[in-house]
Each structure stands twice: as C-alpha cells, then as structure tokens.
C-alpha cells in the first residue's frame, strides 16, 4: 500500500529535502520529515504555509500534482483591503494573468480562521484593513492564488493551503506530519 503523508509546512520551509542555493542554509523538508523514499506531490512556495502531501507512489504523486486531473486545492487567504462582492465575483469567474485566464474559482469571504501564529507575523497596519477568503482552485500555476488576488486589487498577506482533494490539514500542527487515513506505512 502506498504511503501518503500529510505535512503542515511552516512559512519559510523549502518544499524539497535539500537546499541547493549557496549562502546561509534554509529549512527544508529534511528538517521535519525523517521518512525515506517519500517525495512531495506538488509544492508550496517558501512564503506559503499549510498542507503538503508526500508519497512513495509515483502514480499517486502524479495524480495529485498534475493539473490535468484538476484536483481541487483550498486555501485560506488573508488579503490586504476589504474585498467586496465585485472583486470576489471576478475571482469566481476567472481572472486574466500574464500566462492566460484562470479557470473559475470557488471563493467566499470568511471570518478570521483560528490558525496558529505565523513566524514571522504578518505586518499589521492600523490604517489598512484586511480580510480572509476561502479560495478553491483546480489548477496549479506558479503563485496562482497570490497573482489572482493581486489582479483584483487585494494582494495576499498570508496564504495557508488547507485542503487537497479529500485530504485536509485538520489536527496537524505546523512543522508536524501524520500518515493519511487509509494509507499505510509499510
């Protein structure tokens, strides 16, 4: 049976096991996951947090990561400004980016979620409001959610991937991991 790991990637951790950049070393998956033979199915940017799936099954890895399968990915997104219905509707219809129009997204405004504190914290500015959105996309373009919110005038301040397909981050603290239900360690 394939092994599937749910990892809550902290801000500032690379989605790979080694840092090939010269200079001061950055935290990697190897600092958190001591399981041989697993590899990330997709990725999260250095400045994004949340659910990262790792598996030892190449076919499962491809099915999760390949955009042709349109696996839904849900993000909790703190954006600068007070997003109104018109901007949210634009995100729902799809927005034009430099690499083409995005597919329609599921987007709703939500109350501030009960998340762990980010290290470093998001800069608070008393004169600039912010709000939270739940955004579900079925593509995997580079920095897509950040580019989408910026395109409608609301730059992303914090981005946490909460769900990929049926797998969620429920009960996985930052920097920790667990085996997915139904997947087994060998």
What are the SSEs and their pairings?
Layout: E1 4-9, E2 39-40, E3 49-55, H1 58-65, E4 73-80, H2 85-93, E5 96-97, E6 100-101, E7 106-110, E8 130-137, H3 144-151, E9 156-164, E10 167-168, E11 177-179
Parallel strand pairs: 3-9
Antiparallel strand pairs: 1-3, 1-11, 2-3, 4-8, 4-9, 5-6, 7-8, 9-10
Task: Give an overview in words.
The structure is a single chain. The protein is α+β, with helices and mostly antiparallel strands and 186 residues long. The protein folds into two domains: 1-68 and 169-186, Alpha-Beta Plaits, CATH 3.30.70; 72-164, Alpha-Beta Plaits. 13% of the residues lie in helices and 29% in strands. It is built from three helices and eleven strands. Strands 1, 2, 3, 4, 7, 8, 9, 10 and 11 form a nine-stranded mixed sheet that branches. A two-stranded antiparallel sheet has the order 5-6. Strand 5 and strand 6 (100-101) form a beta hairpin. The longest helix has 9 residues, at 85-93. The N and C termini lie close together (7 Å). The mean pLDDT is 92.
